[in-house]
Design brief:
The chain contains four helices and twelve strands, in the order E-E-H-E-E-H-E-E-E-E-E-E-H-H-E-E. It is of the alpha+beta class and about 220 residues long. The chain has two domains: about 80 residues, Pseudouridine synthase (2-Layer Sandwich); about 100 residues, Pseudouridine synthase. Strands 1, 2, 3, 4, 5, 6, 9, 10, 11 and 12 form a ten-stranded mixed sheet that branches. Strands 7-8 form a two-stranded antiparallel ribbon. The two termini are about 20 Å apart.
Length: about 220
C-alpha cells in the first residue's frame, strides 16, 4: 500500500508527501476512494475542515498541503487563488535542453476530442506561465527546476512537451504516457519523472511564511 508521509503539522494544516501513481482526492467509483485526502482524514480524525486546497496529478509525487479547519482551508485556498503560494518541481526531461533558464508562456486548454489531454492554444487557451532552470545535463536527459506561476491542469507536462514553435520547450518529461515519447508510452521508465519538491505559503493564523521540502526520489 502506498505511504503518504507526513512532512509537517501546523496550526490548522498538514503538509504531506504524496507518492506517485496515487490520487490526491477521491476518484469516481468504489475502487478510487483511497487517496491522499482520505489518508489525511484518517491520520487527523479531529480535523473539521474540508481538507482539500490543491492537488497533484495522479502520476506526480510530492508535497501537498491540507487544511484541517474550515478557516485554514479557506485561507490557504485564497493564497493559491492570489498566487501567493510558491511551488517548485524537479523533472527529468528527454534530451539535452539548450538554454540554461527561461520562461514559458503558452496558453492551455482542454483537448475536448482527446480528454484528459491539454493543448497549447494561443486563441482560446488560459494564460499559463512556467519558469525553468537547468540543474544538470546528462547524456540523453536534462534535470530541470520548474516553478509554475499559474496552476493549470497538466501545465508543466504540456509546457515541456509542446514544440518550440507553439511556445513550449520541446522536451517532454520522461515517463509521461500522455505527452511523452514512444519510449514513455511503452512504459520504459519506472514512473513520471516529476516531483513537487518545495512548497511555501503563509501560515494560517500567524501569517508568517513557511517552507517545506521533499527531495526528488529520482
Amino acid at each position: 500500500m502506498p505511504e503518504v508521509r507526513i512532512i509537517a503539522r501546523g496550526e490548522g494544516y498538514a503538509v504531506v508527501d504524496k507518492p506517485p501513481n496515487f490520487l490526491s482526492v477521491p476518484g469516481k467509483g468504489p475502487g478510487k476512494q483511497d487517496c491522499a485526502a482520505a489518508r489525511v482524514r484518517a491520520l487527523f480524525p479531529d480535523a473539521t475542515g474540508p481538507l482539500v486546497v490543491h492537488r497533484l496529478d495522479w502520476e506526480t509525487s510530492g508535497l501537498l498541503v491540507f487544511g484541517l479547519t474550515p478557516d485554514a482551508q479557506r485561507a490557504l485556498s485564497r493564497q493559491f487563488e492570489r498566487r501567493q503560494v510558491e511551488k517548485a518541481y524537479v523533472a527529468l526531461v528527454e534530451g539535452r535542453v539548450a538554454p540554461d533558464a527561461g520562461l514559458i508562456e503558452a496558453p492551455i486548454r482542454l483537448d475536448v476530442e482527446h480528454r484528459p489531454r491539454r493543448v497549447v492554444d494561443h486563441a482560446l487557451g488560459q494564460t499559463s506561465t512556467t519558469r525553468f532552470r537547468v540543474l544538470a545535463r546528462e547524456v540523453d536527459r536534462t534535470r530541470l527546476l520548474l516553478e509554475p506561476v499559474t496552476g493549470r491542469t497538466h501545465q508543466l507536462r504540456v509546457h515541456l512537451s509542446a514544440p518550440p514553435e507553439s511556445g513550449g520547450l520541446g522536451h517532454a518529461i520522461q515517463g509521461d504516457v500522455l505527452y511523452g515519447s514512444e519510449a514513455s508510452r511503452r512504459g520504459e521508465f519506472p514512473r513520471l519523472m516529476l516531483h513537487a519538491f518545495r512548497l511555501s505559503f503563509l501560515e494560517p493564523g500567524t501569517g508568517r511564511r513557511v517552507a517545506f521540502e521533499s527531495p526528488a526520489p529520482f
